[in-house]
């Protein structure tokens, strides 16, 4: 085991889990977060996140997701918080779409507790939705929802209990490998570490401008809709869902606070500067999601009751950037989760700790290799 002194830069979704995993191994770790812990100004806010295992983004994620689920449960055991609820998930879309092919491939290649339904069977079991005759529906029993703010809070709090230190409201201005160490400057103060892992989410390119071409911060708009049939949208009646339709990809989560249902677009609304994001929402940005609600949810009103604005770092291939920065052996990066990183956060924390401890991990993360976008200059 390394006796290194490690810095984790950005204690949001991935950083909090990395700090927890490092502290669990007894590795001395210091976190830097520019805001407070579990703030909602970045990629972790908005009340809920989907967890799913039959994976639209590719079956290569399934082993990571299985391990992530175990670690979500471990974090719940260690902290006593209820973070992940597996109430099932519907993956819906045309059979010949790439994303539904990935879902089917995931259940064919791995042992996932699931059922395949045709549109008619799905309609009988889940009448809240309107299905199209050519839709295929996979009911993933290993899917559900996560409470994101509480998850970040729980991981950071647990890391501190295990000995990690967190500098809150401490913005890292620069990192530099010098003479066998890494120099970190935060709020104008100098620190020195043996290794550094950067988990800065939408701010990643501020520390690695080289990635600007392939990693952009994008605006995400979340929407919650009212209904007078709320009992049909409680977690036991309404599995989370991800749906591909002709002109929109969207998802939904049951009512958690008991007054409205979250149905959100997967589409993003342009590149943003994370330090200067405008949080107003134009009617035109709601057009497609309102139309989808109107078309597919007859019991929901198609004008949202709650709207919120967030962001995430998106890469050009929508896979994250995870590993050592090329030509650097003390600086690691984990960013660019492209709108689907929350469910993976605990396993990413384990991978981060593996990289710090051994320089490698047993998980196949070849599709996330930073070298596809960076030369390390
Ligand atoms: C609205 C919304 C819905 C989503 N839905 C889902 C979903 O259903 N399922 C799913 O799996 N994923 C989902 N995602 C994606 C997922 O939430 C993100 O991929 C994930 O949260 C990214 O985590 P991160 O750690 O990279 O970024 P963040 O959580 O944003 O963490 C980065 C942290 O670094 C800090 N930071 C940045 N720069 C510095 C600096 N220089 N110094 C100090 N601190 C710094 C930031 O303040 C922040 O706290 C969704 C994302 C959004 C926004």
UniProtKB/TrEMBL annotation:
Alphabetized UniProt keyword annotations: FAD, Flavoprotein, Oxidoreductase
UniProt keyword annotation of Ion transport present: no
Superkingdom in the source lineage: Bacteria
Cofactor(s) needed: FAD
Record keyword Flavoprotein present: yes
Domain FAD dependent oxidoreductase: 6-355
Name of the molecule in the record: N-methyltryptophan oxidase
Native source organism of the sequence: Oceanobacillus neutriphilus
Organism lineage: Bacteria, Bacillati, Bacillota, Bacilli, Bacillales
């Amino acid at each position: 085991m390394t006796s290194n002194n490690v810095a984790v830069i950005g204690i949001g979704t991935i950083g909090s889990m990395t700090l927890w995993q490092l502290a669990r191994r007894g590795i001395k770790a210091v976190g830097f977060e520019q805001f407070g812990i579990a703030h909602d100004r970045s990629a972790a806010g908005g009340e809920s996140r989907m967890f799913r295992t039959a994976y639209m983004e590719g079956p290569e994620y399934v082993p990571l997701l299985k391990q992530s689920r175990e670690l979500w449960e471990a974090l719940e055991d260690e902290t006593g918080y209820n973070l992940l609820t597996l109430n099932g998930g519907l993956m819906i879309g045309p059979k010949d779409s790439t994303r539904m092919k990935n879902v089917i491939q995931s259940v064919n290649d791995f042992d996932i507790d699931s059922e395949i339904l045709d549109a008619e069977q799905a309609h009988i079991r889940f009448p809240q939705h309107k299905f199209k005759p050519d839709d295929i529906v996979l009911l993933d029993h290993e899917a559900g929802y996560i409470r994101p703010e509480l998850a970040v809070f729980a991981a950071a709090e647990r890391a501190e209990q295990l000995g990690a230190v967190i500098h809150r409201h401490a913005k890292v201005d620069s990192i530099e490998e010098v003479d066998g160490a890494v120099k970190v400057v935060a709020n104008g103060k100098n620190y020195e570490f043996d290794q550094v892992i950067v988990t800065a989410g939408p701010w990643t390119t501020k520390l690695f401008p080289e990635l600007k071409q392939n990693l952009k911060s994008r605006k995400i708009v979340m929407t919650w809709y009212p209904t007078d049939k709320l009992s049909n949208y409680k977690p036991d009646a309404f599995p989370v869902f991800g749906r591909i339709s002709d002109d929109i990809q969207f998802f939904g989560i049951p009512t958690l606070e008991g007054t409205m249902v979250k149905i959100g677009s997967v589409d993003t609304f342009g590149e943003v500067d994370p330090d200067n994001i405008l949080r107003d929402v134009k009617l035109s940005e709601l057009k497609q999601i309102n139309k989808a609600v109107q078309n597919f949810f007859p019991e929901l009103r198609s004008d949202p009751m709650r709207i919120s604005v967030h962001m995430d770092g998106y890469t050009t291939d929508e896979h994250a950037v995870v590993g050592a920065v090329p030509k650097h052996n003390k600086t690691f990066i984990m960013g660019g989760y492209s709108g689907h990183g929350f469910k993976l956060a605990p396993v990413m924390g384990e991978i981060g700790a593996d990289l710090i401890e051994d320089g490698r991990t047993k998980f196949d993360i070849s599709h996330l290799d930073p070298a596809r976008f960076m030369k390390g200059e």
